[in-house]
């Protein structure tokens, strides 16, 4: 577990800031002002208290210009999804800045888990971005690309097949980063635990949601 200033873990810090955000409530104008402080924890609080209904693509782009840590990126990615800024995914994926590109794949990873009613075709269409950027060896990009691929594959059986096929193809790549992404995804997507969970999802749907 990573620890920051005063020995506080990132998880505990996140919980503290989440609690503070719930107490103070959403205020979009205040969130924009908090972001301008440039302080990491204050910026996390800005993300938590921004109003997704008011967040514009241009505001998201300005924030992305300042991204400098995975924690900020992954928290902001959830907000961008909640705000419906899906159009930023391909744009951010093509941006060569490490943390901006990570944002695209963190958004894909989040979409695969949290957008329950999103058509599977949307996620499957994003596999091309995963393949396109699977050779980016920068730590925070390759981990996010891998994360996105695994989450799509674990979404349901319909997504599992295409995601696993891509993972297997990447695992055979001559590129070492793509090969790592593929092998790691294949490993997780073929475990009995993953397959059993996917089968239970089918059973749950067939039973009308009852377990």
Rg, please? 18 Å
> Which ranges are low-confidence, i.e. pLDDT below 50, for 5 or more consecutive residues?
1-7
Helix content: over 70%
Q: What is the CA–CA distance across the termini?
A: 34 Å
- Tell me the count of domains: 2
Summarize the entry for a quick read.
The protein is mostly helical and 211 residues long. The protein is built from 13 helices and no strands.
What does this protein look like?
The protein folds into 2 domains: 9-66, no CATH class; 117-211, no CATH class. The longest helix has 17 residues, at 98-114. It has 13 helices and no strands. The two termini are 34 Å apart. α10 packs parallel to α12 (176-189). The protein is mainly alpha-helical. It has helices at residues 10-24, 28-35, 40-49, 57-65, 70-82, 88-94, 98-114, 120-125, 127-132, 139-153, 157-171, 176-189, 192-206. Pfam families: DNA_alkylation. This is DNA alkylation repair protein. InterPro entries: ARM-type_fold (IPR016024), DNA_alkylation (IPR014825).
């Amino acid at each position: 577990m990573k620890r920051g200033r005063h020995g506080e873990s990132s998880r505990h810090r996140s919980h503290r800031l989440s609690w503070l955000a719930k107490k103070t409530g959403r205020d979009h104008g205040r969130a924009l002002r908090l972001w301008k402080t440039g302080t990491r924890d204050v910026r996390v609080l800005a993300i938590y208290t921004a109003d997704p209904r008011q967040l514009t693509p241009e505001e998201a782009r300005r924030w992305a210009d300042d991204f400098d840590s995975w924690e900020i990126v992954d928290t902001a990615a959830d907000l961008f999804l909640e705000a419906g800024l899906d159009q930023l995914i391909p744009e951010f994926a093509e941006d060569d800045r490490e943390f901006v590109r990570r944002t695209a794949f963190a958004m894909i990873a989040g979409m695969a888990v949290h957008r329950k009613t999103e058509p599977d075709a949307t996620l499957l269409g994003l596999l091309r971005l995963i393949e396109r950027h699977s050779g980016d060896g920068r730590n925070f990009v390759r981990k996010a690309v891998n994360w996105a691929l695994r989450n799509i594959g674990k979404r349901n059986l319909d997504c599992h097949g295409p995601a696993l096929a891509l993972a297997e193809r990447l695992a055979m790549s001559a590129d070492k980063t793509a090969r790592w992404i593929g092998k790691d995804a294949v490993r997780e997507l073929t475990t009995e635990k993953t397959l059993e969970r996917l089968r239970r999802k089918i059973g749950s749907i067939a039973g009308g949601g009852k377990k």
